[in-house]
Write a structure and sequence with these properties.
With about 260 residues, this protein is mainly beta. The protein has one domain: Macroglobulin (MG2) domain (Immunoglobulin-like). Helices cover about 5% and strands about 50% of the residues. It is built from 1 helix and 18 strands. The strands form 3 sheets. Strands 2, 4, 5, 8, 9, 10, 14, 15, 17 and 18 form a 10-stranded mixed β-sheet that branches. A 4-stranded antiparallel β-sheet has the order 1-3-7-6, with no helix packed on it. The radius of gyration is 18 Å and the shape is globular. It starts with a helix and ends with a strand.
Length: about 260
């Protein structure tokens, strides 16, 4: 079988992101991504290797969610859902436009030692093999009544994915152009991964992979209707007293009709 460029990128993803198999994706999953005005938008925080199926519940005290609509931002309270292993919330909409639900899973330090993984700083531990601080961001775009251009505005996440064209208006076969920011400045990740809900029941399996071009830009080919996720990662290898590297991930969720 011919080894295509796309297959090479998938293989490269496994090399470039060795922590993927050890760490869950942090995803905001709204119940609906198109609602009317004067509606309530329920959502869940999903922590999973398989897109949209939660495998563990994030610590409530480590997660913040804000909702931005019509230029106004509000913090959203979360409630643990032990049955579904999610953190659940809802946001009442009072205006039409593009609602941005944005989540932050604060950085947590995990250290691998000769006796296994520990959720602790490497400081004072014996037999340390490696240690990392893992921080995650997620955004979901919800159309309330009629969408607007809010999808293209930065909201200030330390690692952020911003569409350059309206994801809610994209069609099958189109390319969605994206830009990536790290602390407000253009950032080119090693690779960009994307998939849609239901693509595969295998963990850490993506429908599309590509490399950025230019300065912090990439295009993702939209091949199927449904709820999509784009994911990128930034790794800082500047060690501190507590950990060896700082790993950040960012996810963008949107729906294609």
């Amino acid at each position: 079988m011919k080894f295509s460029a796309k297959m090479f990128l998938f293989a490269a993803a496994l090399t470039l992101f060795p922590v993927t198999a050890q760490s869950h994706e942090f995803i905001i999953k709204p119940v609906k991504l198109h609602v009317g005005t004067q509606a309530t938008v329920p959502f869940s925080i999903v922590s999973a290797h398989l897109f949209m199926v939660s495998e563990e519940m994030e610590p409530l005290e480590q997660v913040d969610v804000v909702a931005t609509l019509d230029g106004k931002t509000s913090k959203v309270e979360l409630v643990p859902n032990e049955k579904l292993l999610t953190l659940d919330g809802s946001f009442p909409t009072k205006h039409s436009g593009t609602l941005i639900l944005a989540g932050h899973r604060k950085g947590m330090i995990w250290t691998k030692t000769t006796k296994g993984w520990k959720q602790a700083s490497k400081k004072g531990l014996k037999g340390v093999i490696k240690s990392g601080k893992y921080e995650k961001f997620s955004k979901a775009l919800v159309t309330v009544g009629k969408d607007d251009d809010s999808y293209g505005r930065a909201i200030g996440q330390d690692l952020e994915i911003i569409p350059l064209s309206n994801p809610m208006q994209i069609r099958i076969g189109d390319d969605l152009e994206l830009k990536f920011l790290f602390k407000g400045k253009p950032f080119s990740p090693e690779i960009v991964l994307a998939t849609y809900d239901g693509f595969s029941d295998l963990e850490n399996t993506y429908a599309y992979a590509t490399e950025p071009y230019g300065e912090g830009l990439a295009k993702v080919k939209i091949t199927h209707p449904g709820i999509w996720m784009v994911r990128v990662q930034h790794v800082s290898n500047e060690p501190t007293d507590d950990y060896d590297q700082h790993v950040m991930r960012s996810v963008l969720v949107f729906e294609v009709d």
